[in-house]
Amino acid sequence: MPSTEINNLNISYQVAGEGDVVILLHGWGGEAASFQPVFKWLSQTHKVYALDLPGFGNSQIPPTPWDSSDYAQFVTAFLEKFDISKAHLIGHSFGGRISIILSAEHPEKVDKLILVDSAGLKPKRPAKYYLRVGLAKAGKWIRRCGTSGEQLANALSERLGSKDYQDAGEMRATLVKVVNQDLRSLLPRISASTLLIWGEHDKDTPVWFGKVMEREIPDAGLVVLKEAGHFSYLDQFPQFCRIVASFLKIANA
User: Fold this and answer.
1) 252 falls within a domain
2) Number of domains in the chain
3) How many angstroms separate the CA atoms of 74 and 31, rounded?
4) Is residue 41 included in any domain, yes or no?
């Protein structure tokens, strides 16, 4: 994979094809390769960039914890680096967060927007979440009790944290900042024509997220894919391609 320097970070990416530009933004814990089937298909008709976002894949970890706005600024810098004046955005999950911010704050840079099982709204919290929050706060005090306190606090975090949190390692502080951002207020500011694609069985970003986005983004339409989960674009790939082809007006797709 080629690499470039953006904001003093070494960034890996894939690029292929010719035509209008499409930027693929992966979900949390993913990388450019997460979009490989989509990348290969779209590069037949478009110039497609798939990024390893900072902290994922082969790209460097940011020097300080970032939130989604920092990632949106990074993507803006990437567009400028490659003289891309306008692009279609396809964002999955966490990549959807970034796409929402970029579309709302830099509408001149976004042609069409496709959000796939996108994050960005505050979920309804189960009781276990509040237990984790309480124990996390208690952990700050427990850690002051020397080595044994540190070990106990770490054990509680590992046991009660989400899988993303457990797997995040050096990116944990970034994950906390990202998930605590509610982007709902930005939705009415999105002027790009928007396609929302959701898996009917998505438990990470449930379908009601898509329904809210369809209602609050001025020019948006929601398609729910049957028998698909959070990775709906992989679970129902042929159907995903047909829907995207129609939205992007790809002939003979």
Assistant:
1) no
2) 2
3) 15
4) yes
Which CATH number belongs to the domain containing residue 64 in this structure? 3.40.50.1820
Using CB atoms within 10 A of its CB, is residue 84 exposed (0-12), middle (13-18) or buried (19+)? Answer: middle
Are residues 107 and 205 part of one domain? yes
Supply the pTM of this predicted model: 0.85
Among 174, 206, 235, where does a domain finish? Answer: 174
Residue 253, in any domain of the structure = no
My answer on whether 113 and 168 are in the same domain is no
What is the layout of strands, in order, in the sheet containing 9-16?
Answer: 3-6, 9-16, 47-51, 21-25, 87-92, 110-116, 193-199, 220-225
Which residue segment(s) compose the domain that 195 sits in?
Answer: 3-122+182-247
Which contacts qualify for 226-230: CB closer than 8 Å, 24 or more apart? 226/200, 227/200, 227/201, 228/198, 228/199, 228/200, 228/201, 228/202, 229/199, 229/201, 229/202, 229/203, 230/27, 230/93, 230/117, 230/199, 230/202, 230/203, 230/204, 230/205
Q: List pLDDT tens digits, range 213-234.
A: 999 999 999 999 999 999 999 9
SS3 state of residue 18: coil
**pLDDT single digits (tens) 165-218:** 566 678 999 999 999 999 999 999 999 999 999 999 999 999 999 999 999 999
